[in-house]
Amino acid sequence: MTKIIGCCLLIALFAIPQSAMSSAPNCSGPDNWPSGMAFTYLKNAGLLQNEITDFSKTKVARLASEKIGDDLYRQVHEITFTKKSGQTLTAVTVNDASNQECSMSGVRVFVVSQQLGE
User: Fold this and answer.
1) Which of 5, 31, 35, 54 is most buried (most C-beta within 10 Å)?
2) Residue at 16 is within a domain
3) Domain assignment present for 60
């Protein structure tokens, strides 16, 4: 009997979509608030320009999401922009988000000047 219950619970867990199990908002797309603000900061700093950036190659990965309030999460993203020359520029962003809005706070942008290791 215990094996049957355990088996049913395991099947039920796999049947639930990952998004339903985690209530943290997904702000990791290249067109979302963190990447848009990162590009704006990098552009204002003279590190990127529209004409030299291949936006189709922009990669965004959510590194962390911590619940800090009722439907409020602090998120950290790694964003890699690729220039048309092939050179990449990586930034790490920190901002607050909710399930209704990725822009619940400003975005802190940190430029990764060197990567060591893999």
Assistant:
1) 35
2) no
3) yes
Give me the domain span that covers residue 95.
24-112
Tally of CB atoms within 10 A around 91: 23
Contacts of 9 (CB under 8 A, 6+ apart): none
Q: Which amino acid is at 50?
A: N
**pLDDT tens, the chain, 118 aa long:** 544 544 433 344 444 444 444 589 999 999 999 999 999 999 999 999 999 999 999 999 999 999 999 999 999 999 999 999 999 999 999 999 999 999 999 999 999 988 888 7
Decide if 103 contacts 94 (C-beta within 8 A): no
Show the tokens assigned to 39: 């590009």
* Residue 3 within a domain: no
Query: Is position 4 within any domain?
Result: no
